[in-house]
């Protein structure tokens, strides 16, 4: 259970009818070395202007009958101890219907990472690949690769991660469950 002191206090009251002040509960938790993992709020980033313009074909509607909508993104994860770097990059592609994930890992966040991931993925005909406006997804190599596979490119609005919420949610769960001790 990953409850904070307020939520745990409410849980104890509703479930066991035990009334404990959240501050008192926090003191008990501190004495017993019990800690909660709370995600940090993300800072607002300044909006970037990009010359590559693709429509948002998905528009947050992931209920395609033909299983043709995929989402992709790149994130960083902690590197294993035998690699002389703090983190490595993970490119993932997720099918919105089956939630099936393909991924590629690299030391560099570049277009080659994304292209290798696309190369290893079996897409259906006339698929839509939804991404953000990252530099790898704005590159000419990426655009040509998707067109050569008879796919359509869909990009979320700039600075709006909720447009690509399926893959962002996957990364959020991956980071909080698999790497809870890593400082994001």
TrEMBL record:
Residues 60-184 form the Integrase catalytic domain. One of its GO terms (biological process) is DNA integration. One of its GO terms (molecular function) is nucleic acid binding. InterPro entries: Integrase_cat-core, RNaseH-like_sf, RNaseH_sf, Transposase_IS3/IS150/IS904. It comes from the Bacteria. It holds the Pfam family rve. This is TRANSPOSASE FOR INSERTION SEQUENCE ELEMENT IS1. It comes from Mycoplasmopsis edwardii.
């Amino acid at each position: 259970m990953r409850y904070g002191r307020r939520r745990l206090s409410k849980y104890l009251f509703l479930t066991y009818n035990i009334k404990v002040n959240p501050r008192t509960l926090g003191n008990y938790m501190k004495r017993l070395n019990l800690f909660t993992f709370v995600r940090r709020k993300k800072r607002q980033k300044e909006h970037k202007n990009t010359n590559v313009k693709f429509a948002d074909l998905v528009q947050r509607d992931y209920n395609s009958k033909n299983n043709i909508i995929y989402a992709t993104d790149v994130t960083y994860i902690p590197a294993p101890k035998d690699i002389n770097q703090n983190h490595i990059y993970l490119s993932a592609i997720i099918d919105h219907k089956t939630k099936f994930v393909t991924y590629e890992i690299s030391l560099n966040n570049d277009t080659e990472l994304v292209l290798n991931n696309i190369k290893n993925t079996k897409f259906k005909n006339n698929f839509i690949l939804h991404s953000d406006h990252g530099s790898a997804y704005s590159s000419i190599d990426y655009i040509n690769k998707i067109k050569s596979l008879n796919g359509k490119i869909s990009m979320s609005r700039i600075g709006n991660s909720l447009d690509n919420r399926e893959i962002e949610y996957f990364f959020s769960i991956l980071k909080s469950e698999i790497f809870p001790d890593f400082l994001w």
